[in-house]
């Protein structure tokens, strides 16, 4: 009946069909008159009954939309229940006496009781007739109410179950989508593939839902709060579209590329401006944009720098009501307290004007979305420390360029916070233990991939390089002890990665796992890091690249799994691990707090490139078992 649509599509003909049914007309006649359904023989009767069932189901859903679900049950009372038994002709008392008591054996009272016993049913029949008339009128009233409701456009607070097919609305509700507003917000936050966040919700159903939301009637009803055009664009389209076309600049909780600061807050001629600025007469926003130009665009470092500068700039503008160049060390200390509270205490932020909820949005919210916010949730201690380090770098650069007179981030409590020892620093001993875990617990493709990933991390490659890079060729004719790996990067050309000579067997194992060929004879490009699929047997062709988040997750999992393995091994006294259990708790805590950035800190602690290579060769040459 619904031709595969996910929407409720009751029209005037369906309501006319239902009215005729309630009035007692034959189903076959109604189906032929209002639904253009063939009614020959038994098939026609089946079509008519199926039509009635479908219309009732849609009316039931529509009743939920207007909050009349309980009252709408009246419509579902079958009309056969209104049929009455044949009514007997009523007799007078004198006629009854002549028939039942011709010899006058009963008294008057006895005769009246006998009369009511045998012929009083017409009173009950009259009552049933009156009741049935009331029910029919009620049915017609509810039917008219639902017909008016279906003509009305949807509102943001309407329940999805009132507009969409019951099966799909249940799936949306399982994903936490209960209203039209929830649905629109999900689409605007997640973009074109929003439906992947809803269990058992396919692309076809999603396309129909979006088409309905974008119709003139529905779009006008939802107004500016409806689905944004950017949300329906594919990622490739978004990358090729000018950011200025995705969203207009405005003053508010928006990203740097969409921020427009009024002249009174743009930072010109403020208290902390330098005397001789090498940047010229620029605003705070432009100064931050110029600072970001020093970094590789869209790289991890660039994104981290933009995020922290963006957060502090918005906080100064919206919370403090002052420009970036008006910031003082008191503001910076207050910002530290803000970072400690935001995302942790719900809506309430003690000592601040703007509610905490206004600063946070779900992870993955697109930057052009009206739902975007600078925070995704509470920050860890290390994240707060990293934020202060980055802001300190920004301040140093602004002072160096003469834009600021002094770096307000290099004062007071913020210096102490930034200089606290990092608990996730890794030693060579930690990394050796991770390698030992890989050798002892992983097999086949998983082991090959883990060893290769650890090597790339130790050599200083960033998560973006590992996730996006594709090996193009290997060059051996260079200095003794090393060889080059030519890696192609999307939209960035290619770069050369210098690997130690002893890594050749690892590259061969990796190339065999990906393409079934040795690394020295590469004939096709292969990803620097691939994603495991259902089958992990060696070899397997056409491996897919792992995502940026996947690289970080894989490294984090290796550290956490190693810590758990160590704890179990120490408790069980399993050889060959000989480990001082008195420092095991602290050792495992360091492992659990480690991530991909921990490799950079390890490299700094080791020293020069020659010492790093020597350490890597010792680690891999010993199979990760040195010192245990």
- What's the number of structural domains? 4
Based on the coordinates given, report the CATH architecture of the largest domain.
Orthogonal Bundle
Number of strands: 6
Separate helix tally? 25
- For the biggest β-sheet, the strand order reads 3-2-1-4
The dominant shape is elongated
Whole-angstrom Rg: 37 Å
Kindly provide the name of the CATH class of the largest domain. Mainly Alpha
Q: And the CATH topology of the largest domain?
A: hpI Integrase, Chain A
End-to-end distance: 71 Å
Summarize model confidence as the mean pLDDT: 75
Structural class: mainly alpha
Protein name: Core-binding (CB) domain-containing protein
Keywords: DNA integration, DNA-binding
Domain Core-binding (CB): 282-399
GO molecular function, one term: DNA binding
Commentary on this structure:
Pfam families: DUF3701. GO terms for molecular function: DNA binding. Keywords: DNA integration, DNA-binding. With about 625 residues, the chain is mostly helical. It has four domains: about 10-150, no CATH class; about 160-240, no CATH class; about 245-420, no CATH class; about 430-620, Orthogonal Bundle (hpI Integrase, Chain A), CATH 1.10.443. Helices cover about 50% and strands about 5% of the residues. It is built from 25 helices and six strands. The protein has a four-stranded antiparallel beta sheet. A hairpin with a 6-residue loop joins β1 (about 470-475) and β2 (about 480-490). α18 packs across α22 and α22 (about 550-570) runs antiparallel to α23. The protein is elongated. The two termini are about 70 Å apart.
